[in-house]
Amino acid sequence: MTGQPDRWAELTGGQAGEDYARRFARLVESGHDIHGEAAFCAALLKPAARVLDAGCGTGRIAIRLAELGHHCTGVDVDASMLAVARRDAPTQEWLLGDLARLDDLDLDPGFDLALAAGNVIPLLAPGTEAAVVRQLAAALSPNGLLVTGMGLDAAHLPLAEPTVTITEFDHWCTEAGLTLRQRYATWSGDPYDEGCGYAVSVHSRHAT
Fold first, then answer.
1. What is the model's pTM?
2. Is-contact 52 113, C-beta < 8 A?
3. Do the beta carbons of residue 76 and residue 57 sit within 8 Å?
């Protein structure tokens, strides 16, 4: 740990939960499909899989995956976001915690899939990124999947400049015992080309 606040907290002050929920409610009202990430993950999963939504925010993805029959645990460091998740899905498991210290939560390992969507990786506290990837990898079952979505340029981030390169991210994954299986430019599965501003990546944990 660096002792620095995560970039999300610097942007929002930890009070963005209700605003974030209203933003997606407006998207639904305007006819947008807000379940692209959940549909992408569901296509990778067997029935009744265990899913760790890391940086779950207001729970939008985990709630949808639970509706599809999966067992979801959401973790976030932002209490205002979790308050919305707990209100909308009170029977699901929502945990307040730092992803760089995920082991402090005493989760049962063996998740079939860990998800870090919504620019979770680029918005971590500086210097904690590799530790978070290690923690997520350790939570997976053998052959379990880490699915991530992240902006690689300012146009795809709520930041003035990118914080993570895809080369750095893949290096952290390799060090954590993960192998890249698939990469796309969108949650809809559009092909990824070098230089894309967004990457959806699927890594798997090495079987031991």
1. 0.89
2. yes
3. yes
Each residue of 167-180: b (16+ CB within 10 Å) or e?
eebbebbeebbbee
* Helix and strand counts by DSSP (H, E) for the chain: 7, 7
Q: Which of 53, 68, 70, 55 is nearest to 20 (CA)?
A: 55
Q: Which two tokens stand for residue 130?
A: 């590799």
Beta bridge partners of 149: 200
CA distance 95 to 87: 13
The pLDDT tens digits for 144-163 are 999 999 999 999 998 889 99
Q: 3-state class of 139 per DSSP?
A: helix
Tokens of 102: 């995920």
Contact between 199 and 166 under an 8 Å Cβ cutoff? The reply is yes
Q: Is the CB of residue 78 less than 8 Å from the CB of residue 16?
A: yes
